[in-house]
């Protein structure tokens, strides 16, 4: 190793350390903002702020404990395995590890960005890109401390793959051809959705080879060998077989010189692409077109029954506007525009960078597919900013005297980049997200863990499935992955209908869920209930559940977990079972409004949205008086016990009002919602003793046990 090469390696290491330290340091802003909030701690450790993280945390916990608490535990998930091994090797408490891992691993994005800059001949450009790419708005959101999820490496790994492809084409060193397919295989193992990026990189690499052949008139012997290498990660044979093939092919490349490639490279390349397109490309394109992000609708039909499609209720999977899109990628309009200009200039100057286009396209897919996709475009818009800034700095510095030209180049380009970083830095102080559950809610689950067994089921909405399993060590019916319309229907029904049909649905749902998992069958609640009770049509199922019926015997106990936070999504919960299963239309939407109390004046209680609850029991809006059926006041006394006061004002009215004084809000709801199991058991603590037994009653969450 000569001195110049050694000096360059030192410069790369220093650049990586500086950029990584910068990315980590800014992530501690979040910690400094929440460190004094007691409700964010459990057992002395800050809790994570991403509900999906509890899924992988459950798997890691069970690996560490050497047990599998239930069949839903992801003990084979890469993130769970990585977390468990780190916890065991470094003896780090699991709750500490899952909080800090996202930032520690997410900040690694600086490494491939710096290496890409070096591969293109400008290490400084890579360093500048790393400063922005590591902290840009959406990337920070999904790799901040507490955001424990696969996102911590979902962009890092494919960016490494892009770097490895760039190196392969620019250096043409066969010894390192294995790096790109290695990263591509590992990234698909880490997250199978990255198969789309792998296909995109392969196609762009193929196009680049054609560019070299027909426009640059270059020999493509080595490039052909390399592109063939990139097919291995596309073979759906599993990680270990892929790694074995990569090793075999790498040895073959170094050991044999195949003259056929050199003489007929383009013919063989076209033949391989034809085979790829026929057996890999077409199925891949077909799967993309059929994806629910493209076919989203009000409802999804399953075997003649219409269910509400959950993708329509997930905020991060919803369409976003250009302003949100721009800020999430670059932090500001000026940063986005400069990044776009710089990226286009980068593609023109370095055509090899077309291999990054699949990630940028995936980032732009956020406009339709939701904000979760913006992070894929962040690294390359950061490179675009960096490239533009070094061009501008060079242009300006060239007009300056030689003795300060060098300093002007670095100083100006850094100043430009800091100007683009600043809006992202300011945003970090505003983006202070609470943990998924607060300490009061976790205390309820911790108490439930002492009563329930791992085989017992907790019925709650899918948003809370993962943390419930993590803290209470129980089983759930639905969660963040198991939440399609057919499995959501019975849970929605149980939460939004009166107590008898809710009781029936819960027992049947647990019975059928357990049976289906044991027998490995496709689960559909409505169809199986029809079969069990010889019902003629799906519409009969709901009416049937309102009756006293002969229920199957179940070994598992069933608990209802009813948190206060469910009030915020209760209308959405209702949509899944208030849908016409024959047509997919939601015609019978129940009445439910939750309004904050703004104050009191001479007219009565002042509510949000311009509503007044008058002293004589009317809702007033725009001088229109709306009569009320029942007016209910609830509050918690000094001992945390619920106090209720109920008054019937106008029995003919379909509207009811519940004043939740302890929470400073009012519920306006129709008779159906008033009689729902969630409202009766959580808000009012009215329960049928023959059906339910209270286990834990707190203002933040309540647990009832189903009486069998």
TrEMBL record:
Record domain Oligosaccharyl transferase STT3 N-terminal: where: 38-392
Residues that span the membrane, as ranges: 12-30, 97-116, 123-140, 152-169, 176-191, 197-214, 226-253, 265-286, 325-344, 374-395, 407-425
Membrane topology: Multi-pass membrane protein
Keyword annotations of the record: Glycosyltransferase, Magnesium, Manganese, Membrane, Metal-binding, Transferase, Transmembrane, Transmembrane helix
Name this protein carries in UniProt: Dolichyl-diphosphooligosaccharide--protein glycosyltransferase/undecaprenyl-diphosphooligosaccharide--protein glycosyltransferase
Cofactor(s), by name: Mn(2+); Mg(2+)
Organism: Caminibacter pacificus
Highest rank taxon of the organism: Bacteria
Keyword Membrane tagged: yes
Family to which this protein belongs: Belongs to the STT3 family.
Domain named STT3/PglB/AglB core: residues: 455-583
Pathway, per record: Protein modification; protein glycosylation
């Amino acid at each position: 190793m000569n001195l110049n090469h050694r000096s360059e390696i030192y410069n790369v290491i220093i650049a990586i350390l500086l950029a990584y330290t910068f990315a980590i340091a800014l992530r501690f802003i979040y910690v400094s903002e929440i460190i004094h909030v007691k409700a964010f701690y459990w057992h002395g450790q800050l809790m994570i702020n991403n509900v999906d993280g509890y899924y992988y945390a459950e798997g890691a916990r069970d690996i560490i404990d050497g047990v599998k608490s239930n069949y839903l535990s992801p003990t084979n998930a890469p993130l769970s395995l990585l977390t468990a091994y780190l916890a065991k090797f470094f003896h780090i408490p699991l709750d500490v590890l899952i909080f800090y891992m996202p930032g520690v691993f997410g900040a690694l994005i600086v490494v491939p960005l710096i290496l890409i800059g070096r591969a293109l001949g400008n290490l400084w450009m890579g360093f500048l890109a790393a400063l922005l790419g590591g902290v840009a708005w959406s990337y920070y959101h999904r790799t901040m401390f507490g955001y424990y999820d696969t996102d911590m490496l979902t962009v890092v790994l494919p960016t490494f793959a892009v770097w490895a492809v760039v190196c392969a084409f620019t250096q043409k060193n066969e010894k390192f051809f294995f790096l790109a397919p290695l990263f591509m295989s590992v990234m698909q193992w880490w997250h199978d959705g990255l198969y789309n990026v792998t296909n995109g990189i392969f196609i762009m690499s193929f196009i680049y080879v054609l560019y070299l052949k027909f426009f640059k008139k270059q020999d493509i012997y080595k490039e052909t060998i390399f592109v063939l290498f990139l097919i291995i990660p596309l073979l759906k044979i599993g990680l270990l077989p892929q790694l074995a093939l990569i090793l075999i092919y790498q040895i073959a490349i170094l050991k044999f010189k195949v003259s056929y490639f050199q003489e007929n490279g383009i013919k063989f390349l076209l033949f391989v692409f034809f085979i790829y397109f026929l057996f890999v490309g077409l199925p891949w394109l077909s799967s993309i077109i059929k994806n629910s992000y493209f076919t989203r609708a009000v409802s999804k039909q399953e075997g003649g029954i219409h269910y509400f499609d959950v993708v329509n209720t997930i905020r991060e999977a919803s369409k976003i506007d250009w302003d949100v899109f721009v800020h999430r990628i670059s932090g500001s309009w000026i940063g986005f525009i400069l990044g776009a200009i710089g990226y286009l200039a980068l593609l023109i100057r370095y055509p090899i960078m077309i291999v990054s286009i699949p990630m940028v396209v995936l980032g732009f897919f956020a406009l339709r597919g939701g904000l979760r996709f913006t992070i894929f475009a962040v690294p390359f818009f950061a490179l675009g900013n960096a490239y533009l800034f070094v061009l501008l700095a060079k242009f300006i510095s060239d007009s300056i005297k030689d003795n300060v030209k060098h300093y002007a180049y670095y100083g100006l380009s850094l100043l430009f980049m800091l100007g683009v970083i600043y809006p992202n830095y300011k945003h970090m102080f505003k983006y202070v997200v609470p943990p998924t559950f607060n300490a009061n809610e976790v205390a309820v689950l911790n108490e439930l863990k002492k009563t329930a067994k791992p085989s017992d089921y907790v019925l709650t909405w899918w948003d809370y499935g993962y943390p419930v399993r993590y803290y209470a060590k129980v089983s759930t019916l639905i969660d963040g992955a198991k939440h399609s319309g057919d499995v959501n229907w019975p849970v929605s029904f149980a939460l939004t209908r009166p107590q008898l049909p809710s009781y029936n649905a819960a027992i049947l749902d647990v019975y059928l869920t357990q049976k289906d998992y044991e027998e490995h069958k496709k689960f559909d609640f409505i169809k199986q209930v029809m079969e069990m009770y010889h019902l003629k049509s799906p519409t009969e199922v709901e009416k049937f559940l309102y009756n006293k019926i002969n229920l199957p015997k179940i070994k598992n106990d069933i608990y209802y977990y009813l948190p206060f936070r469910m009030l915020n999504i209760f209308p959405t919960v209702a949509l899944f079972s208030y849908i016409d299963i024959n047509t997919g239309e939601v015609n019978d939407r129940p009445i439910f409004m939750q309004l904050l109390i703004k104050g009191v004046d001479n007219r009565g209680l002042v509510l949000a949205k311009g509503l007044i609850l008058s002293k004589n029991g009317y809702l007033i809006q725009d001088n229109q008086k709306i009569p009320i059926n029942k007016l209910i006041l609830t509050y918690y006394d000094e001992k945390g016990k619920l106090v209720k006061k109920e008054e019937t004002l106008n029995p003919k009215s379909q509207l009811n009002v519940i004043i939740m004084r302890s929470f400073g809000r009012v519920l306006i709801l129709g008779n159906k919602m008033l009689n729902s199991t969630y409202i009766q058991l959580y808000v009012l603590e009215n329960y049928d003793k023959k059906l339910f037994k209270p286990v834990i009653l707190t203002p933040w969450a309540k647990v009832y046990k189903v009486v069998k």
